[in-house]
Design a protein that fits this description.
There is one protein chain. The longest helix is centred in the middle third of the chain and has 31 residues, at 114-144. The protein has helices spanning 19-42, 48-71, 76-81, 88-91, 94-105, 114-144, 160-187, 190-193, 202-206, 268-284, and strands at residues 7-8, 149-156, 212-217, 221-225, 228-232, 237-242, 246-251, 259-262. With 286 residues, the protein is of the alpha+beta class. The chain has a domain at 14-144. Helix content is 54%, strand content 15%. The protein has ten helices and eight strands. Helix 1 (19-42) runs antiparallel to helix 2, helix 1 packs antiparallel against helix 6 (114-144) and helix 5 (94-105) runs antiparallel to helix 6 (114-144). Strand 4 and strand 5 (228-232) form a beta hairpin. The chain is globular.
Length: 286
């Protein structure tokens, strides 16, 4: 894709969270809190049908109240997106699985309904937490980029070898996770059901085969995959490498993977402009 130069990108984020963000936040709160309320209700209610209807009612009530509350907090999405603590949204639901299965492992008696509720709380909560992380970072990036100059842009997939590895990992994760669920229900092997968490791996791996849009701006490197956007400041990078088959932008932190682009997807005519922009910005940040 042709590189574009000298453009401004993005617009300021709204003061209040938009409806899609509020809905995601409401569902997240429901996934996190509903198991606790249903556990309490199970001690006074009997019958699967009654508990199921109670579960649905609690989910709807929490989602509506929490979603409306979030929509009234000015600047919430942008503030969360600019903080590393936003990742707690994805990690917090793990408390359900750790608490319930940990208690069972050490011999504490837990209600029969606790295990499926833990699965719902952890699975739904972690998934929606990751959605909120992505939405928060997108809105933060939009706000910061409102007045930031753009120097170059390109669209590219991961290099070919990395795409093949991602597809292979995705297939393994989906297969093992699906088989684990079947084994749990068919043979009663409880630990096998925990393998369903591997199903969460296939989502980011699936995106590896699709192109991402990269923008070199004064504020930092922007990585987009519609409708999501992420901004990383130049201080988070230590350099780049241009090989015969890939452009690799290396991050400063060892635990953060490099950003890799298939060189075949970048127009050679504009590569000089792109490289010059990276040279200037990565040097000026030192």
């Amino acid at each position: 894709m042709a590189t574009q130069t000298g453009a401004a990108v993005g617009q300021s984020a709204a003061d209040y969270p938009d409806p899609s963000y509020a809905i995601a936040a409401g569902l997240y709160a429901a996934a996190l809190l509903t198991p606790a309320i249903v556990l309490v209700l199970s001690s006074v209610l009997s019958g699967a049908a009654v508990l199921y209807l109670s579960f649905l009612g609690v989910v709807a009530s929490i989602a509506i109240v929490a979603g409306w509350s979030v929509s009234r907090i000015r600047g919430l999405a942008v503030s969360l997106g600019g903080s590393s603590t936003v990742w707690l949204l994805a990690a917090l639901p793990l408390v359900w699985s750790v608490g319930v299965f940990g208690s069972s492992a050490i011999g504490w008696e837990v209600p029969d309904i606790a295990a499926p509720l833990a699965v719902v709380g952890t699975g739904g909560g972690c998934f929606l937490g990751l959605v909120l992380v992505a939405l928060s970072r997108s809105r933060y990036a939009t706000a910061v980029l409102a007045d930031s100059e753009e120097f170059a842009q390109w669209e590219a997939r991961w290099p070919r070898r990395w795409r093949y590895l991602s597809v292979a990992g995705m297939v393994v994760a989906m297969t093992v996770g699906g088989v684990g669920i079947l084994v749990q229900f068919a043979f009663g092997i409880d630990w096998a059901g925990s393998l369903y968490y591997l199903l969460f791996i296939w989502t980011p791996l699936a995106g590896a085969v699709n192109p991402r849009t990269f923008r070199v701006t004064a504020a930092g490197l922007v990585v987009e995959r519609s409708p999501l956007r992420r901004l990383r400041p130049w201080s988070a990078f230590k350099g780049y490498t241009l090989t015969t088959d890939a452009l690799i932008i290396q991050t400063a932190a060892w635990w953060c993977p490099a950003y890799r682009s298939d060189r075949e997807d970048i127009d050679e005519d504009e590569l000089d402009t792109l490289v010059a922009s990276l040279d200037e910005l990565l040097t000026s940040r030192e």
